[in-house]
């Protein structure tokens, strides 16, 4: 299943990347996502957020009461025009779910338009497509949480 999300951040692309590499910010994202538990690792090559989240009742019959999700963010240095490319990968532990997105952060006169496009694949025979449709809002909410928390942090 293809997905395409667009976010707007009230700062430049390099500052968005700085925020995504701030442990306290990523910790805040997990807390506001309702994580039962989480860990954050920030390094020069990537930012990793691993969290255990409660799942909607509609998915519980497939995956149980909680789901272990890892989001890995990788960003390249800014290009000459100030844009930044990167990737966001989501791994769901113990499940045949793969989420891979390309990120493009584009400066737009003092703000940044972030475009995340990629694929969500659930490799379960016979019910994979049905589960993809149920998982997609969960993944959209995870991406949306980044935008909401960034707006709060940037407004400080």
TrEMBL record:
Which InterPro entries does its entry note?
A: DUF2505
Domain of life, per UniProt, equals Bacteria
**Pfam family membership, one:** DUF2505
Protein name, per record: DUF2505 domain-containing protein
């Amino acid at each position: 299943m293809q997905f395409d999300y667009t976010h707007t951040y009230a700062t430049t692309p390099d500052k968005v990347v700085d925020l995504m590499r701030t442990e306290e910010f990523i910790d805040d994202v997990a807390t506001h996502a309702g994580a039962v538990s989480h860990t954050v690792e920030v390094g020069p090559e990537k930012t990793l957020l691993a969290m255990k989240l409660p799942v909607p009742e509609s998915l519980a019959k497939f995956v149980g009461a909680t789901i272990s999700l890892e989001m890995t963010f990788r960003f390249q240095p800014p290009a000459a025009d100030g844009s930044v490319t990167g990737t966001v990968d989501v791994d769901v532990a113990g499940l045949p779910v793969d989420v891979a997105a390309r990120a493009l952060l584009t400066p737009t006169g003092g703000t940044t338009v972030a475009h995340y496009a990629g694929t969500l694949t659930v490799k379960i025979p016979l019910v994979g497509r049905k589960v993809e449709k149920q998982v997609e809002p969960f993944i959209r909410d995870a991406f949306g949480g980044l935008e909401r928390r960034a707006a709060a942090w940037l407004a400080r």
